[in-house]
Amino acid sequence: MLKTIRIRNMRGVKEATIDNLTQVNILIGRNGVGKSTLLEAVYLASSWHNLKDEIRGVDKIDYVVRRRGFRGGWKEFKQTIWFQKDVEQAIDVILNFHSGKQLSFKISYNTEEAVWLEIPSEAREALRGVLEEYLLKKYRGKALRRMIEYYGYIAYYNAYTLRASDPWFETWTTLDLDLHLKLLRTLGIERETRFLQDVVLIDSRLIISDIERNVWPKLLARRLDKLILDVVREGFEVYVEDLTFIPTPMGSFVLALKTPETVIEVDGLGDGVRNAIAVSSILASVKDTLVLVEDPEIHLHPGGLAVLMSFMLRMARERNLQLIMSTHSVELVNIARRLCEELNMDLNVYFMERDREGVVETRILKGFDVDVLQKLGLDPRLLEVL
User: Fold this and answer.
1) What are phi and psi of 231, to 5 degrees?
2) For 91-150, how does the pLDDT look when each residue is reduced to its tens digit (9 = 90+)?
3) Is 163 helix (H, G, I), strand (E, B) or coil?
4) Contact of 239 with 323, CB cutoff 8 Å
5) Residue 170: is its pLDDT beyond 60?
6) What is the rounded CA–CA span in Å between residue 296 and residue 325?
7) Burial (0-12, 13-18, 19+ Cβ within 10 Å), 165
8) Which residues contact 335 (CB under 8 A, 6 or more apart)?
């Protein structure tokens, strides 16, 4: 799991570091301090190993650009994610793991591939040997030696291409899966990249049709749909008998709730229960990875929020998930603290604030700190004005 996240030059954040991450982590702070940017940065870095968002069926780099303004994608509007639109500076996302390994990603504006992994200088010679063996098998002729010499100075590589550090001469090659796995083994980062491969970003823009198409087949194959039914019954619709698919006039099928009286399409339900179905479906479908959740309290009554949070934490414990959530809800913080104590899970609450230069400071609020502030009648979300 992740221990530290450091980002530079993304959106409104010049620099931010969040340290000592544990299994459950909550980010609080006023609007614009960089909570969502932090989530987006990790999600964007994960596209290095898996470009596709398996839930939404789109490229992650396009979704990061489009999710706020719903305009275009990476090619048309990528400059909007750079700090002060200074595209000459790379966006850096540096991830440290509890294993002791570090992955440093650079998001480049002027290259065909967006996200690059920086190769430590001490590892480049080992990579040279792997590449030489690969190129000798794939190519023949005198030009091969030039390529081997060139690739011996690799500074960055992408899951799909390689780039040398020499700015005057760039050669690209498409990586096959076998070579990619050999490079990961050589660098000793197989476990860390596997953890990043299935990273998901959960936000209020989830569309039920995407969940039906890309998530529910996995749930039904293992009958995990029963878990989602329990969430709906406990927190929202007591009299629901089952979840099913029903045909539409267009020939497709939609997810629906069975009640004693009728069948109700999930599309027609209230925002709260619809959001809970989407979020719980995703949590039940992934394992051994990181789940990034933006404002899970949206549209939820505290009672429904408690049920959803209980499910999220149970899935995190049973399916080896690390959670990083942003929120504006004190109720969510208090619910998460109580549940983590009951489940014997580690929780950190981070207060974030950003100065005028875009530098973000974070501090961990212990349970004692939150309790004292609330007993004094003070809202821990407003620490910067206290």
Assistant:
1) -60, -45
2) 999 999 999 999 999 998 988 788 999 888 888 878 877 877 776 776 654 455 555 554
3) strand
4) no
5) no
6) 8
7) exposed
8) 302, 305, 306, 309
SS3 category, 16? strand
- 199, 43 in Cβ contact below 8 A? yes
What is the three-state SS of 328-374? Answer: CCHHHHHHHHHHHHHHCCCEEEEEEEECCCCEEEEEEECHHHHHHHH
Amino acid at 67: R
51: amino acid identity, one letter:
L
- CA distances from residue 26 to 34, 121, 328 in whole angstroms, order as listed: 13, 35, 10
Helices (H), the chain: 35-46, 60-69, 74-77, 124-138, 143-151, 177-187, 190-197, 208-214, 216-221, 225-235, 271-285, 302-318, 330-343, 367-375
Run of H or E including 242: strand 242-247
The residues near 64 (Cβ < 8 Å, ≥ 6 apart) are 40, 43, 44, 74, 81
* Tokens matching residue 178: 């076998």
CB atoms < 10 A from the CB of 376, how many? Answer: 8
What phi and psi, each to the nearest 5 degrees, are found at residue 253?
-130, 145
Count Cβ atoms within 10 A of the Cβ of residue 315 and give its class: 0-12 exposed, 13-18 middle, 19 or more buried. buried
Task: Read off the pLDDT of residues 158-168 as tens digits, 9 standing for 90 and up.
Answer: 776 766 544 33
CA distances from 112 to 41, 67, 109, 115, 160 (A): 19, 22, 8, 9, 11
| Helix, coil or strand: residue 148 | helix
Report which of 211, 131, 227 is spatially closest to residue 175, judged by C-alpha positions.
131
User: What is the identity of the amino acid at 149?
Assistant: E
DSSP string, 254-299: EEEEE-SS-EEEGGGS-HHHHHHHHHHHHHHH--SEEEEEE-TTTT
Residue 240's SS3 state is coil
